[in-house]
């Protein structure tokens, strides 16, 4: 993947945590999230446990692009944070994901990189693999279900802008796409994919 890839990059990390030190691990995971928020290009993060008694914990975070992600990955702040948790946390797997599947929040994303953590066994199967993205036709249906009503509403609202109907077609489309792209990316598609998640998982 090119270094100037403009797509947001989502990183999924699977870790094993010493169950006896779960309270420390909880504070440690939150500290890592708080650190990442101070870096340019940070778009969000979260973490969950596989189960109440499980030693598998999953962390997700997203950056604007490869350069901003690597600025975090290579930072002394992250190195310090990782060192502070080595006594009770070990990485099992790290995956980067990008592309249109990024709208289908993990675990529905295309894998673009997969590597084992430094503390993971060199051989043997990786447990609890992350599922692949939904079929493309389901992605298309999901995007359409979000785009159609959003575009319809925007077209109706823009019809009330004085003189808008007289603008050249290129300018009308330009304004509509500039307005709708962030709405679709940050509001509509995340909401639609959450609502359709059981269907997307099947």
Name the overall outline: elongated
Q: Quick one: biggest sheet?
A: 5 strands, antiparallel
Q: What do the pLDDT scores average to?
A: 77
* Strand order of the biggest β-sheet: 2-3-1-4-5
Helix content range: 40-55%
Give the SSE string.
EHEEHHEEHHH
Radius of gyration: 20 Å
Can you walk me through this structure?
This protein is of the alpha+beta class and 202 residues long. The chain folds into 2 domains: 9-116, Alpha-Beta Plaits; 136-201, no CATH class. It has 6 helices and 5 strands, in the order βαββααββααα. It has helices spanning 22-36, 66-73, 76-84, 136-158, 169-195, 197-201; strands spanning 9-17, 42-49, 56-63, 89-97, 111-116. It has a 5-stranded antiparallel sheet with strand order 2-3-1-4-5. It is elongated and about 65 Å long. The chain starts with 8 loop residues before the first strand and ends with a helix. The model is unreliable at 1-5 and 105-131 (pLDDT under 50). One of its GO terms (molecular function) is monooxygenase activity. Residues 8-77 form the ABM domain. InterPro entries: ABM_dom, ABM_predict, Dimeric_a/b-barrel. This is Antibiotic biosynthesis monooxygenase. The chain crosses the membrane at residues 141-163, 169-192.
């Amino acid at each position: 993947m090119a270094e100037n890839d403009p797509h947001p990059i989502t990183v999924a990390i699977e870790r094993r945590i010493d169950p006896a030190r779960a309270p420390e691990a909880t504070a440690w995971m939150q500290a890592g999230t708080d650190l990442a928020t101070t870096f340019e290009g940070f778009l969000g993060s979260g973490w969950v446990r596989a189960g109440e008694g499980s030693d598998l914990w999953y962390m997700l975070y997203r950056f604007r692009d490869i350069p901003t992600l690597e600025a975090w990955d290579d930072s002394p702040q992250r190195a310090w944070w990782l060192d502070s948790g080595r006594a009770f946390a070990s990485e099992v797997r790290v995956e980067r994901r990008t592309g249109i599947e990024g709208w289908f929040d993990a675990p529905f994303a295309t894998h673009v990189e997969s590597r084992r953590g430094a503390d993971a066994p060199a051989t043997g199967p990786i447990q609890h693999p992350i599922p692949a993205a939904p079929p493309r036709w389901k992605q298309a249906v999901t995007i359409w279900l979000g785009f159609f009503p959003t575009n319809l509403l925007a077209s109706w609202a823009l019809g009330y802008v004085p003189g808008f109907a007289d603008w050249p077609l290129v300018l009308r489309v330009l304004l509509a796409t500039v307005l709708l792209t962030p709405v679709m990316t940050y509001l509509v598609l995340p909401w639609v994919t959450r609502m359709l998640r059981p269907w997307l998982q099947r």
